[in-house]
Specification:
The complex is a heterodimer.
Chain A lengths: L1 H12 L1 H40 L3 E6 L10 H11 L5 E9 L4 E4 L2 E4 L2 E5 L1 H8 L3 E5 L1 H5 L7 E5 H7 L6 E7 L5 E13 L8 E5 H7 L9 E5 L7 H11 L13 H4 L8 E6 L5 H39 L1 H9 L4 H34 L25 H27 L3 H6 L3
Parallel strand pairs in A: 5-10, 7-9
Antiparallel strand pairs in A: 1-11, 1-12, 2-5, 2-11, 3-4, 3-8, 6-9, 7-10, 8-9
Chain B lengths: L1 H22 L5 H13 L8 E11 L3 E12 L4 E8 L7 E5 L2 E6 L4 E5 L20 H4 E11 L2 E10 L8 E7 L5 E7 L5 E6 L3 E6 L2 E6 L1 E13 L2 E16 L9 H8 L2
Antiparallel strand pairs in B: 1-2, 1-15, 2-3, 3-4, 4-5, 5-6, 7-8, 8-9, 9-10, 10-11, 11-14, 12-13, 14-15
The chains are: A alpha+beta, B alpha+beta.
Chain lengths: 431, 269
């Protein structure tokens, strides 16, 4: 179509005038998409760490008067849960203990703890594979399956104690009936990037921790379910809930874990279905804050692009009033003139957005090289100390479409104003 | 005559042998239990109140010495005690109170009482708050084993005790008690798995009289932590806390001494 040719030719002919508009669009889009990618990557890292911490996509807890959140004959319950879930589900028991009256000791140095987690590493290795180990790791444990007195500790705790993989440390804890106990354990892995989800948390062998805590062999206090390599939506979780309710006496759906745990009494054995999101209510506030900040940044940048390009284009069109007069004089319809000018600005915006995407990719690659673990408590957003931006296609497309559409509307307004002029008046204008 | 002299010598020897044997007879179970009860009773004052000045000095390897001075009031018959910290200045006015089976810690800075536990450390030292109260060696523990042994110059019975229930600081302890006076000379505290956690030595005692009756009170105690410490020049040195007891008196105190308002009042002075 001839409008396309005219628009393209005009763009190339006036490239010097359009460079600044192109740059505004490119940098505005790049910063917006970059902010979205970085925040998406941060949230993804956070969720991945939370998943390791809480044991997977959802957990099942059992409560009954006299045995609150205690589960006996856990293997029987494990079999029931497995039978009600798809084959791809990894179902694993856990024991999670309050470690605040426990400590590690190494050569006289004490390191306090918050939480002790006993896990079956054979089942949970797909989940733990996203741990960032600075020393040792899962394979270290799997290579010597007969050794049960192992532990994974966080890097800050390892630095505090001055330990490395292979060192034997003392764990002091109080058993479930408040008796002081100590056990010797070997450090088999040191992990980083955990912050609130792991700095004061340690991972032990499920049966070893149970014995140290003086609990019977058939005891657990959680059944964790994980679907590796699958994106579990809320709809799927509800489907699992419905399936499990056929074999277990499930409490009603909870969006907050405390809604189940804080119940006064359960006369009969009742199971709580705790999705990952139900553990993250405090963290969700942080996520909402991040989303709000990113949205604010994107909106401001979009407005800058619209205002900048829109107002500049209005000036440019006014300067081209002579040209518009010629188009009218040679018989070009007003709609054709509008579509030509719009297409020209569309091409400008499109190239600007494409440039912005390329700049985003380069910028994200650059930012992911730096180690940000020096920032306190920031490592829950990192992987191996680095930011790992992730594309959110939906949001990115929405930003690009908004920028293009909104700017085109601004240009359209300026264009309509200019074509109202009579051809003679347009031709009479001297630049 | 030679035959007679030989017989006399032989019979004397036999008699001496049996006399010695009787005096060195192995301690029986009931004697051991009785000795343990005596050791327990020596740590308590059920007929009166006990008041003393305590100097608690903690030595951390490589970090120097920190000293806390406190006055302690005890009424063991009612399971009550009050500890009022006098020094250093930053801790002056703080206190502990045991009453109605609860232990409270008072901080004058925020004027609040917080719940504490007998297992909690006293002012961050290696001493537990339970170290300032009567010890329940025979009430809370059973004798798993005992043997006669020597601890320095003291003839002692070494008790290996295991907790009867769960309301104890340490599930296993070893106790050296002198045979003649039933006083504790040394104690080792162990975890459930049998790891040594603390060692307490009581080198000497002082006599304090009440109504003509003597009570033995430690002059000092040294508690060594077997977990906390520091490696200095390749050698492991552990934290220790020494407790010196002076100005000990046995006389009834006002009932108000064992109340929260008393701690609040004294902290303001």
């Amino acid at each position: 179509m001839y409008q396309t040719k005219i628009a393209l030719r005009s763009l190339i002919y006036r490239k010097n005038q359009y460079v600044s508009l192109f740059l505004v669009c490119m940098f505005g889009v790049a910063i917006s998409l970059g902010a979205i990618a970085v925040s998406t990557g941060m949230i993804h890292s956070l969720n991945q760490k939370a998943k390791i911490y809480y044991g997977g996509d959802f957990a099942l807890m059992c409560a009954k008067d006299g045995a609150w959140l205690d589960m006996y004959n856990y293997e029987e319950h494990l079999a029931t849960v497995k039978s009600l879930l798809p084959a791809s589900a990894i179902v694993s028991p856990r024991i999670e203990l309050d470690g605040r009256r426990g400590s590690f000791y190494f050569e006289g140095v004490q390191a306090l703890q918050q939480t002790f987690k006993g896990i079956e590493i054979e089942n949970e290795s797909p989940l733990l594979s996203s741990f960032t180990f600075t020393e040792g790791g899962i394979q270290n444990v799997l290579d010597s399956p007969e050794q049960k007195n192992w532990v994974f500790i966080s890097l800050p705790i390892a630095k505090m104690l001055g330990v490395h993989v292979g060192d034997e440390i003392t764990l002091q804890l109080e058993t479930f009936d408040n008796i002081l106990n100590t056990v010797q354990i070997e450090v088999k892995g040191i992990f980083q990037d955990s912050s609130v989800f792991g700095m004061y948390t340690s991972y032990f062998d499920f049966n070893f921790l149970k014995a140290a805590y003086s609990r019977p062999p058939d005891y657990a206090n959680r059944i964790c379910v994980n679907f590796p390599h699958e994106n579990i939506t809320v709809k799927k979780l509800h489907a699992f809930y419905d399936s499990l309710s056929k074999g277990l006496n499930l409490y009603h759906w909870v969006d907050d874990k405390d809604d189940f745990i804080d119940v006064d009494s359960f006369k009969v054995e009742t199971w709580g279905f705790i999705p990952l999101s139900a553990n993250l209510n405090d963290v969700e506030i942080m996520q909402l804050a991040m989303d709000a900040i990113i949205t604010f940044i994107v909106v401001i940048l979009t407005l800058i692009i619209i205002a900048g390009i829109g107002s500049t284009y209005r000036v440019l069109i006014m300067k081209r009033i002579n040209e518009i007069g010629i188009y009218m004089a040679v018989g070009m319809k007003k709609s054709s003139i509008v579509s030509t000018l719009l297409f020209e600005s569309f091409l400008l915006l499109l190239t600007g957005c494409l440039g912005g995407i390329i700049l985003t990719v380069l910028g994200c690659s650059f930012i992911s090289v730096f180690d940000f673990s020096f920032i306190p408590s920031f490592d829950m957003f990192l992987e191996k100390g680095n930011l790992c931006p992730r594309a959110d296609v939906l949001k990115s497309v929405a930003v690009i479409v908004s920028v293009i559409l909104a700017t085109l509307l601004a240009v359209l307004y300026a264009t309509f104003k200019s074509i109202k002029i009579m051809p003679v008046e347009a031709l009479a204008v001297t630049e | 005559m030679n035959n007679y002299a030989f017989k006399k010598h032989f019979l004397s020897s036999v008699f001496a042998f049996f006399a010695l044997s009787f005096s060195l007879h192995a301690i029986t179970d009931s004697e051991a239990l009785s000795l343990l009860k005596k050791a327990e009773d020596s740590t308590a004052f059920y007929s009166t109140d006990f008041t003393a000045s305590y100097e608690v000095a903690q030595q951390k390897p490589g970090e120097g010495r920190s000293v806390t001075n406190a006055t302690i009031y005890r009424r063991d018959s009612e399971l009550k005690w009050t500890i009022l910290i006098q020094a250093p200045l930053k801790d002056k006015g703080k206190g502990y109170l045991q009453t109605e089976n609860s232990i409270w810690f008072y901080d004058p800075a925020d004027r609040r009482f917080t719940f504490s536990s007998s297992k909690d450390k006293f002012q961050g030292t290696n001493a537990n708050t339970s170290d300032f109260a009567p010890q329940k060696y025979s009430s809370d523990y059973t004798i798993a084993a005992f043997e006669e042994t020597k601890l320095g110059k003291f003839e002692c019975v070494l008790f290996t005790l295991k907790a009867k229930g769960k309301n104890v600081d340490y599930p296993q302890i070893k106790l050296w008690v002198t045979k003649d006076d039933g006083l504790t000379r040394k104690k080792e505290d162990y975890s459930l798995s049998g790891q040594k956690l603390r060692t307490t030595a009581i080198p000497s005692y002082q006599k304090v009289y009440e109504n003509g009756l003597p009570y033995q009170i430690p002059v000092s105690m040294v508690i060594q932590d077997n977990l906390k410490g520091k490696k200095i020049n390749g050698k492991m040195s552990y934290e220790s806390t020494s407790i010196s007891i002076s100005n000990a008196t046995l006389a009834k105190q006002d009932d108000a001494v064992y109340t929260k308002p008393y701690l609040e009042l004294m902290s303001g002075k």
